[in-house]
Amino acid sequence: MKSVEQYRNQKVLVLGLAKSGMNAARLLHKLGAFVTVNDKKDFDENPDAQELLNDGIKVITGGHPLSLLDEDFKVVVKNPGIPYTNPIVAGAIEKNIPVITEVELASQILEGELIGVTGTNGKTTTTTLITAMLNQRTAAGKAYVAGNIGVPASAVAQKATADDTMVTELSSFMLCGIKTLHPHIAVITNIYSTHLDYHGSRENYIKAKMRITMNQTPDDYFVINWDSDEWQNLAKQSPAQVVPFSRQAKTKAGAYEVDGKLYFQDEYIMAAKNIKIPGDHNVENALAAIVVAKLQGVATAGIVQVLKTFSGVRHRTQYVETYEGRQFYNDSKATNLVSTEMALRGFDQPVVLLAGGLDRGNTFEKLAPALKDHVKTLIVFGETAQKVADAGKLAGIDDIEFTENCETAVPLAWQQSQPGDIIMLSPACASWDQYPNFEVRGDRYIKAIEKLTGKAEEN
Question: Where is the Mur ligase central domain (predicted)?
Answer without folding.
Answer: 117-293
